[in-house]
Amino acid sequence: MKRLNSIHFTALMVVIISGLSLVAIRLLFHIQPVVNPMISYTADIIAIVASIGSILGGNALAKEAMGDLNYKTDITIKMKIFQVAFIKKMILIGLGGVLCAVAYFLTGKNTALMLLGMLVIYMLVSRPAKFRVSETINVAEEDLPE
Length: 146
Description:
single chain
């Protein structure tokens, strides 16, 4: 469980730090937004697709990675499969957050910033709690390793 929490914390911090650093660079150096409407709308569309796609794709990728979980009986093997699935999910959601931060950096529109906030809140809510992990891998909470 400690490893899962550290993976979650690392992925969350990558999104938060990259988002905040791009926002800070933009505000401190007074970088002007892109004035071409085509690029501006394209960046908004990329941010929307990246945020929604990262959540849906991350969940689908995690579900696919845990496909053979029911056939395993050893708890350590189940935990390793769950960790790999969780890492894939967090990486994909983190990439969506970084793309939203880049879209805000380019356009200066709040749409991408709101989507970045949505991804951060989703990552905070999807923190790996013991009851969620035990439910997912069909193991009693007491049997989970620390």
